[in-house]
Amino acid sequence: MGRIISVANQKGGVGKTTTAVNLAAALAVAEKRVLLIDFDPQGNATSGLGVDANGHGGIYEALISRRHIRDLLVDTELRCLKLVPSTIDLIGAEVELVDDPERDTRLKAALDSVSAEFDYIFIDCPPSLSLLTVNALVASDSVLIPLQCEYYALEGISKIIRTIELIRSRLNPGIEVEGIVLTMFDARNNLSHQVADEIRRHFGSKAFTTVIPRNVRISESPSFGKPVLLYDINSKGSISYMELAKELVSKGDRR
Amino acid sequence: MGRIISVANQKGGVGKTTTAVNLAAALAVAEKRVLLIDFDPQGNATSGLGVDANGHGGIYEALISRRHIRDLLVDTELRCLKLVPSTIDLIGAEVELVDDPERDTRLKAALDSVSAEFDYIFIDCPPSLSLLTVNALVASDSVLIPLQCEYYALEGISKIIRTIELIRSRLNPGIEVEGIVLTMFDARNNLSHQVADEIRRHFGSKAFTTVIPRNVRISESPSFGKPVLLYDINSKGSISYMELAKELVSKGDRR
Ligand SMILES: Nc1ncnc2c1ncn2[C@@H]1O[C@H](COP(=O)(O)OP(=O)(O)OP(=O)(O)O)[C@@H](O)[C@H]1O
Ligand SMILES: Nc1ncnc2c1ncn2[C@@H]1O[C@H](COP(=O)(O)OP(=O)(O)OP(=O)(O)O)[C@@H](O)[C@H]1O
Ligand SMILES: [Mg+2]
Ligand SMILES: [Mg+2]
């Protein structure tokens, strides 16, 4: 059975999409079968992989019209990586589901039918704790929390942790924190070191050892519709996401 | 009558809170009477100004229990800058208002009673286009759109522009785009120049001339609960936000 991992943090711009796309790509290069769900109406993971979702069904269809996920899979440049894209109608999903008694478990129901076909399923979440993110957390085995090495991001970490605890107590007893990934770390900058120290002090081994540095190749790669390891395999950005993939797999082996 | 300006962009982490806090502070230093509304449940503008909102009422009370804004004002370190803080219960407001026929105009009704007492009222919006942001746009004369000089942020600009047009046609015929502010501009980085050129080509004079550089003092100042001009007045960050304040005021003079 594949492991379903939400990439979530209500703080905006912390590297959720960048981590979901590049970690998924790094695992696919290592021949793991990977599915990425773009669950953000912004559709950044979709364009970050160079996919044009116009005219194609997206995750909205699986959620609202219960279309089978297998009909919505899109190929990417990597043989082992499939995507279910996001389309603009996803913006309306939250209002459309508000009176539905099963509104919290729609995504889980959709993913149950395909999870055996993949080793990993990642869900890229929007920057909020509303119904879409709740759906992702209910469907997941664990949550990967990207954390930008900045003050506002550090301040907000307790909110996503509390939300996970709430989901665990009411809707998904098995959910756990996969880990916190420090992103956009700038070694020349005091603030980065302060945030990293604080996170390691509070969360210990729940913080991944691998740190993602601020790296211009990472921010350039989406404009070419490629994960960073297909854009510049030798960049610090590519290397750090491949390290993160190795660390994630070895965490799984120890489970 | 004070000018009510929403600081909005559904893309996360583009500098909405940083711009709202530092522009409000720069205008207050220039003796303009300024009110900042923290309309994001994350509460970053509240902590960015060093305010502890625990035990104090916030914008949630004005929205849901129709408390008077004047009762919710909090002083800041700047005589001419007042804040209405955000509290965690704001997270529930969207669900609580969903069946209310006046759900779109609650904030406008709350601000009408105080707008004459200020020269500028800024509303710091969350990273989404949901009910809170709609309330802010309905209450506003104009929208200031911070835009991080990155690919995903550029890709998303059409979504906020389209939302403003939708609000103009249905709920607030007078709303206009105050301008697009380029943020976290790094002169050494090609991507920054490409994004800036693209924005100036598309939006012409709707893009502010002032560009906010990536500046470490800006990202350090919230950890001290101060706007950057009270943390390091000589930093490039402070200077750029004071330039932006001057440009905003002179735009107003020409209206
Ligand atoms: N390690 C990095 N080095 C340099 N730039 C980065 C890095 N990680 C992310 N970025 C850039 O920072 C911006 C924010 O990242 P991203 O969009 O992945 O965050 P997000 O959390 O998904 O945002 P949102 O909250 O809007 O969904 C993007 O423009 C991205 O290209
Ligand atoms: N010009 C700048 N130079 C350096 N750092 C900056 C600059 N502007 C903002 N930052 C930092 O970037 C991060 C994102 O900025 P900010 O939180 O203001 O964005 P936002 O759009 O309000 O985010 P959200 O979508 O979560 O509300 C913060 O940690 C902030 O300190
Ligand atoms: Mg994202
Ligand atoms: Mg903000």
Briefly characterize the structure.
2 copies of one chain form a homodimer. With 255 residues, chain A is of the alpha/beta class.
Overview of the structural elements:
2 copies of one chain form a homodimer. The first copy, chain A, has 255 residues and is of the alpha/beta class. The first copy, chain A, is built from 11 helices and 7 strands. Chain A has helices at residues 16-29, 44-48, 59-64, 93-97, 106-112, 131-139, 151-170, 190-203, 216-220, 228-231, 236-254; strands at 3-7, 34-38, 74-75, 81-84, 120-124, 142-148, 176-183. Chain A has a 7-stranded mixed β-sheet, with helices on both faces. In chain A, helix 1 crosses helix 11 and helix 5 runs parallel beside helix 6. The longest helix of chain A is centred in the middle third of the chain and has 20 residues, at 151-170. Chain A is globular, with a radius of gyration of 17 Å. The mean pLDDT of chain A is 97. Chain A binds chain B through residues 10-14, 17, 42, 44, 47-48, 91, 94-95, 98, 126-130, 148, 150-152, 155-156, 159, 189-191, 194, 216, 219-220, 222-223, and chain B through 10-14, 17, 42, 44, 47-48, 91, 94-95, 98, 126-130, 148, 150-152, 155-156, 159, 189-191, 194, 216, 219-220, 222-223. One adenosine-5'-triphosphate (ATP) sits between chains A (12-18, 40, 44, 127, 183-184, 212, 214-215, 218-219, 222) and B (11-13, 127, 150-152).
